[in-house]
Design goal:
The structure is a homodimer.
Chain A (H helix, E strand, L loop, with lengths): L2 H8 L6 H32 L2 H8 L3 H7 L3 H22 L6 H17 L11 H9 L1 H23 L9 H10 L4 H9 L4 H13 L6
Helix pairs in contact in A: 2-3, 2-5, 5-7, 5-8, 6-8, 6-11, 8-9, 10-11
The first copy, chain A, binds a DNA duplex through helix 4.
Chain lengths: 215, 215
DNA sequence: GTCTATAATCAGATAGAC
DNA sequence: GTCTATCTGATTATAGAC
């Protein structure tokens, strides 16, 4: 089957058709892989997820998987890059006219929604092999830094607005917000079955921003 | 070496010396095992901890370990029983005249201190084999329920005192407090190296009770 | 690039002597 | 109960044909 002839007929001549078409197939396949990895990471975590499982869910052989990603760690890293890209895209959509505090609230709500919908990968916070791979992944690190910079700017703005406690170091606030994306309270409340997802999110939003003390 | 003769000479006759002595040795050995398990669980988590490691750190053969505990899960469960016992003992020492809110604050501070000192086992919140073992362990479950009941009573008291937000379900408050014992914010701030343990604890105490909003 | 089949390794658990 | 030596199974990773 001459894919080159087909794609040549459909593609402007100045774009190298063959390469573009194959690259598209490659990326589509890799997107499918990452989607499965993302879901399994959210469901079971890094260690419990097996490469056999990933291959089976994608519907390809394990050896083929290793042609795309050289290790299990790289699979997880690719999923995290995807999450960072989604986060960056979401930050772009946050209403620019809202207050800094509202922007932050919007983002935290979004991350908790992802978590409750099983789309937030949960990595062990202290796996050294995975950490090494992640820190060596420039796409991930660049994304993380970009997200952190933008959130950090909003945090400082909210502090000078008098909306966020200025006595808290901005970095502590940032970590506190990040931690909502993997907060076990979300799963526990969900397991309890007494609350809808939307209620759970508002409860944790309240404890996060207003605290548990009465006001 | 006739341990029986030695212990007979040192022990009142009406107490079955041989059994008592052997039982003491057994318990002492098991305490040593649990201590190592506790430390490794705090350091690396359940999945990263290996039974070989436990045996090596205790200084006994792995087969001997399995004479005391039938599985890796039971090792972790024993460590958690120990934590529950420590928690119960600590609850007994909390000043009974303090306000319910102050009691809760004291307990949360204590758990975060344990975590920062590497004495708080960190279990994956969703490992099914471990969960099953834990839920089947009556010593653990009884301890957990006792602790939860006592904290729950303080939470409700604090709410009727007007100290804790009465709109929050008590169970959500309980989970929120429990979650401080495994809060990744603690490790991240510690890794940053900018704050002392005591400062880190007060920061997280503040975000937990007062929230990140300005007051 | 995809597959089947297989290596290589590691970790939980056990056998059997003492 | 403790040890050495071993089993068993699961899992990451690769070889080699197509």
């Amino acid at each position: 089957m001459d894919m080159n002839a087909i794609s040549s007929a459909l593609t402007p001549a100045k774009v190298p058709a063959k390469i573009s078409f194959k690259a598209q197939m490659l990326l589509a396949r890799e997107d499918a892989i990452i989607k499965v990895v993302n879901q399994l990471l959210a469901e079971k975590g890094f260690e419990a997820m097996t490469v056999d499982e990933v291959a089976a869910n994608v519907g390809i052989a394990k050896a083929s998987l290793y042609k795309h990603f050289p290790s299990k760690e790289d699979l997880a890293a690719a999923a995290m890059v995807g999450v960072m890209q989604r986060a960056q895209a979401f930050l772009d959509t946050v209403a620019p006219d809202a207050s800094a505090l509202d922007k932050l609230r919007t983002v935290v709500r979004w991350t908790m929604g992802l978590k409750l919908h099983g789309e937030m990968p949960s990595l062990p916070s202290q796996n050294s092999s995975l950490r090494t791979t992640l820190m060596a992944n420039t796409a991930y690190m660049d994304g993380l830094m970009d997200v952190s910079d933008r959130l950090g700017a909003w945090i400082e703005q909210a502090q000078s607005d008098g909306a966020i406690n200025p006595k808290l170091p901005a970095i502590a606030v940032l970590y506190t917000l990040y931690a909502r994306a993997c907060d076990p309270v979300l799963e526990f409340l969900k397991m309890g079955g007494l609350h809808e997802n939307a209620q759970i999110i508002e409860l944790v939003m309240s404890t996060c921003f207003e605290g548990i003390n009465a006001r």
